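User: Good morning. I'm curious how flavin-adenine dinucleotide would be positioned relative to this chain. Could you predict the structure with it bound?
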Amino acid sequence: MQHSEVLEGRADDEPTSCDVVIVGAGFAGMYMLHLARRLGLSAVVLEAAYGVGGTWFWNRYPGARCDVESMQYSYSFCEELQQEWHWTERYASQPEILAYANYVAKKFDLLRDIKFNTRVTKAAFQEEDCRWLVSTEAGMRYRAKWCVMATGCLSAAQTPDIRGLDTFKGRIYHTGNWPHEPVSLSDQNVGVIGTGSSGIQVIPELAAQAKHLYVFQRTSNFSIPARNKPMDPEYENSWKTNYAERRKRARSMPAGILCELGDTSALAVSPEQRLNEYERRWAAGGTSFTAAYSDLLRNAEANRTAAEFVREKIRTVVKRPDVADLLAPVDHPIGAKRICADTKYFETFNRENVTLVDIRSNPIHEISPDGITAGSNFHKLDSLVLATGFDAMTGALSKIDIVGREGLTLREKWRDGPNTFLGLMSSGFPNLFIVTGPGSPSVLTNVIVAIEDNVEWIADCIAHLLDVHADYIEATASAEETWMEQVRQAAEGTLYTQAKSWYLGVNIPGKPAVFMPYVGGVPAYQRICEEVAASGYKGFSIGTPTKGLHRREALLA
Ligand code: FAD
Ligand code: NAP
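Assistant: Good morning! Here's the predicted structure, ligand included:
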């Protein structure tokens, strides 16, 4: 394979040229860079942070850790890497995952092609030469044939628009953008807004530090004890001696996670059998609780059996019945929002220094310099932690001014919800790939599996384009339409659509309510992606030059 080089622009107004520009240096961008180099391509990664790791660079809040076991939440592409890295806990903590990302960057010599502290603000397709011109906040420009958005599904932290937030005189922390210097909250009255996965992880840690912790809860969430523990050497060894085979089996599971998958209906067994099974899974810990029966996310009655079991556990753990009632979720099926894994979350509400504030019944009226008024009660606070989530799946992309053919912007195209073919490309935007984009299984899986599969598909696709000397590849509008209908139908048959979740985008004011991930599972999705590639990229137009592609009106139809 011929190797090309990055050509730095010589004059101020001359862009740096390369074959591939990759935006983002999380696990997706790092692997994309590695594979682009393997193809002999010149590639540059542009990253807003000062280091690699993406999610694990930004989310440094106390208690942050993965909810997929560390033996699985790691790259599988390199046997040597998975043999030599040692995870110290069943679920790795944020610092350990970040250390792993840095280790990978060093091992594969990635850093020399990553431009840190570089935020991309615009990416525009130049029809005349079929190149992407990518501009950064600091005014640098990069010109490349292919542009890969590895910007992450959960990388655009969402700050709520609460009256008076900007008047608060204490410090405000967002879990998704936690400071890098140590934060001490001891002897302080601390407020936390948000009880999703981030809130559930950070709350027990803050409670252990703060003088008093006020948890402002709008919606309670289901959570299963993680039962995190130091890595058992025998368990680690069993994985390391069987890694290839286990990774393969993991990829045959809907979420790309090797776990015990129940294959009967929850309603096909006796109540005693069901209870035993739920008890067994509760004791084992972890999010595979919802894999106990095959229909927990399809049948409301089956789901109620699992939900009621967890509600009962909450009532057992939490001493005050009124607090337990508030913490027991009743407004959505279990698993319809990303299920959380916790360490002593519900137990935390038995502490003297923790108060649960029900802001569903007593909404936050305003934030003032000294605290929060919820209903008619004022809570005096020294610091405020926002665990208020992300503009998921489309947020990072919509922050970039992405301009495709004929001046069409991605924001304009996705105004009623994202449209992609396979989550990988959107028509009107030739040679622009998205890793784990809307319309792919991504956030419903072990995301590293989804990343590896997408990045390998993109690399194979680029190799094919090189083989056939093609200038461009673009999803056809009809393939995209058919795929989005498949994505919609796959979700429709499940209970996922019955929760007001970020999967639907309803956590962001004004965002169209469209179920974004593909629920069909890793094996089905992967098979479809492989078939598309094997058919010579059916559903894509490939060619040279770009003239004669469908027009702007058709793209917006
Ligand atoms: P990211 O890691 O989000 O990286 C994207 C990168 O792109 C970031 O570094 C960002 O700075 C950069 N970027 C974005 N926009 C721009 C721009 N305009 N210019 C320059 N750079 C830009 N998944 C699991 O499967 N299991 C888990 O246990 C799990 N735990 C999680 C815990 C938390 C707290 C969060 C927030 C997410 C978690 N996830 C988990 C999902 C997680 O995001 C993925 O597993 C994975 O890390 C995503 O990698 P990525 O490279 O696709 O995106
Ligand atoms: P999230 O699940 O969207 O939760 C956000 C929380 O903030 C919700 O409780 C929400 O309440 C609340 N909130 C938002 N705006 C509010 C407002 N204006 N007023 C009051 N409350 C408000 O976000 P997240 O917890 O950061 O998690 C996002 C995803 O990241 C997870 O689902 C998961 O995929 C991933 N993650 C994983 C882990 C892990 O365990 N490995 C940890 C953290 C994150 P409502 O529900 O009422 O809107």
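The chain has 17 helices and 20 strands. Residues 168 and 368 are 5 Å apart (CA to CA).
Let me know if you'd like a different ligand tried.
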